[in-house]
Design brief:
Radius of gyration: 16 Å
Number of strands: 0
Shape: globular
Bound molecules: (2R)-1,2,3,4-tetrahydroquinoline-2,7-diol
Strand content: under 5%
Oligomer: single chain
Largest sheet: none
Length: 114
Protein backbone atom coordinates (compact mmCIF):
# COMPACT_ATOMS: atom_id res chain seq x y z
CA UNK A 1 0.00 0.00 0.00
CA UNK A 2 2.81 2.34 0.93
CA UNK A 3 4.36 2.03 -2.60
CA UNK A 4 1.03 2.90 -4.29
CA UNK A 5 0.56 5.88 -1.97
CA UNK A 6 4.14 7.00 -2.70
CA UNK A 7 3.58 7.01 -6.51
CA UNK A 8 0.32 8.96 -6.27
CA UNK A 9 1.96 11.52 -3.90
CA UNK A 10 4.72 12.22 -6.47
CA UNK A 11 2.10 12.60 -9.24
CA UNK A 12 0.13 15.02 -7.04
CA UNK A 13 3.21 17.14 -6.30
CA UNK A 14 4.08 17.19 -10.04
CA UNK A 15 0.52 18.28 -10.85
CA UNK A 16 0.72 21.01 -8.18
CA UNK A 17 3.86 22.31 -9.95
CA UNK A 18 1.94 22.28 -13.27
CA UNK A 19 -0.85 24.40 -11.74
CA UNK A 20 1.65 27.00 -10.50
CA UNK A 21 3.49 27.06 -13.85
CA UNK A 22 0.22 27.51 -15.79
CA UNK A 23 -0.92 30.35 -13.49
CA UNK A 24 2.38 32.15 -14.07
CA UNK A 25 2.11 31.70 -17.85
CA UNK A 26 -1.50 33.00 -17.89
CA UNK A 27 -0.48 36.09 -15.85
CA UNK A 28 2.36 37.12 -18.19
CA UNK A 29 1.81 40.40 -20.12
CA UNK A 30 2.56 38.60 -23.43
CA UNK A 31 0.12 35.68 -22.79
CA UNK A 32 -2.83 37.31 -24.63
CA UNK A 33 -2.37 35.44 -27.99
CA UNK A 34 -2.37 32.11 -26.14
CA UNK A 35 -5.16 32.41 -23.57
CA UNK A 36 -7.96 30.90 -25.71
CA UNK A 37 -8.15 28.64 -28.81
CA UNK A 38 -7.51 30.29 -32.20
CA UNK A 39 -10.84 30.62 -34.06
CA UNK A 40 -9.94 28.60 -37.17
CA UNK A 41 -13.31 29.56 -38.77
CA UNK A 42 -12.09 33.20 -38.78
CA UNK A 43 -8.32 32.80 -39.31
CA UNK A 44 -7.94 31.50 -42.86
CA UNK A 45 -5.45 28.67 -43.26
CA UNK A 46 -4.99 28.01 -39.55
CA UNK A 47 -6.74 24.61 -39.52
CA UNK A 48 -4.71 23.46 -42.59
CA UNK A 49 -1.32 24.65 -41.27
CA UNK A 50 -1.62 23.84 -37.55
CA UNK A 51 -2.34 20.12 -37.08
CA UNK A 52 -2.53 20.16 -33.27
CA UNK A 53 -3.96 23.47 -31.96
CA UNK A 54 -3.28 24.18 -28.27
CA UNK A 55 -3.81 27.12 -25.90
CA UNK A 56 -3.63 27.88 -22.16
CA UNK A 57 -7.39 27.48 -21.53
CA UNK A 58 -7.30 23.98 -23.09
CA UNK A 59 -4.28 23.11 -20.93
CA UNK A 60 -6.18 24.42 -17.87
CA UNK A 61 -9.20 22.20 -18.75
CA UNK A 62 -6.97 19.12 -19.30
CA UNK A 63 -5.20 19.79 -15.99
CA UNK A 64 -8.55 20.09 -14.16
CA UNK A 65 -9.74 16.84 -15.80
CA UNK A 66 -6.60 14.94 -14.73
CA UNK A 67 -5.50 14.39 -18.34
CA UNK A 68 -1.79 15.05 -17.58
CA UNK A 69 0.12 12.16 -16.03
CA UNK A 70 3.43 13.98 -15.46
CA UNK A 71 5.24 17.29 -15.74
CA UNK A 72 6.58 16.02 -19.09
CA UNK A 73 3.14 15.55 -20.71
CA UNK A 74 2.13 19.03 -19.45
CA UNK A 75 5.36 20.51 -20.88
CA UNK A 76 4.57 18.87 -24.23
CA UNK A 77 1.32 20.85 -24.55
CA UNK A 78 2.88 24.13 -23.39
CA UNK A 79 5.68 23.78 -25.94
CA UNK A 80 3.06 22.90 -28.60
CA UNK A 81 1.50 26.35 -28.02
CA UNK A 82 4.85 28.01 -28.77
CA UNK A 83 5.73 25.69 -31.68
CA UNK A 84 2.34 26.46 -33.32
CA UNK A 85 3.01 30.18 -32.83
CA UNK A 86 6.43 29.95 -34.52
CA UNK A 87 4.92 28.01 -37.43
CA UNK A 88 2.09 30.49 -38.10
CA UNK A 89 3.75 33.82 -37.30
CA UNK A 90 6.80 35.74 -38.52
CA UNK A 91 9.49 36.09 -35.83
CA UNK A 92 9.37 39.84 -36.48
CA UNK A 93 5.69 40.26 -35.62
CA UNK A 94 3.84 41.17 -32.42
CA UNK A 95 2.49 37.64 -31.88
CA UNK A 96 5.73 36.03 -33.06
CA UNK A 97 7.71 38.03 -30.50
CA UNK A 98 5.14 37.24 -27.79
CA UNK A 99 5.63 33.53 -28.50
CA UNK A 100 9.42 33.75 -28.23
CA UNK A 101 9.14 35.81 -25.02
CA UNK A 102 6.72 33.30 -23.46
CA UNK A 103 8.88 30.29 -24.40
CA UNK A 104 11.94 31.95 -22.79
CA UNK A 105 9.86 32.77 -19.69
CA UNK A 106 8.62 29.14 -19.46
CA UNK A 107 12.15 27.73 -19.82
CA UNK A 108 13.33 30.06 -17.03
CA UNK A 109 10.39 28.97 -14.80
CA UNK A 110 11.33 25.30 -15.32
CA UNK A 111 14.94 26.00 -14.27
CA UNK A 112 13.64 27.53 -11.03
CA UNK A 113 11.29 24.57 -10.31
CA UNK A 114 13.90 21.83 -10.93
O1 LIG B 1 -2.52 38.41 -37.70
C1 LIG B 1 -2.93 37.36 -36.97
C2 LIG B 1 -4.28 37.18 -36.72
C3 LIG B 1 -4.71 36.08 -35.99
C4 LIG B 1 -3.78 35.15 -35.48
C5 LIG B 1 -2.42 35.35 -35.73
C6 LIG B 1 -2.00 36.46 -36.48
N1 LIG B 1 -1.49 34.47 -35.23
C7 LIG B 1 -1.89 33.50 -34.24
O2 LIG B 1 -0.89 32.51 -34.10
C8 LIG B 1 -3.20 32.90 -34.66
C9 LIG B 1 -4.25 33.95 -34.72
Amino acid sequence: CYKIAQISKDDNSQLAVCRVLLAELEAHKDAWPFLTPVNHKVILGYRKVIKRPMDFSTIRRKLNNNLYFSLETFMGDVNLVFDNCEKFNEDDSEIGRAGHNMRKFFDELLQLKK
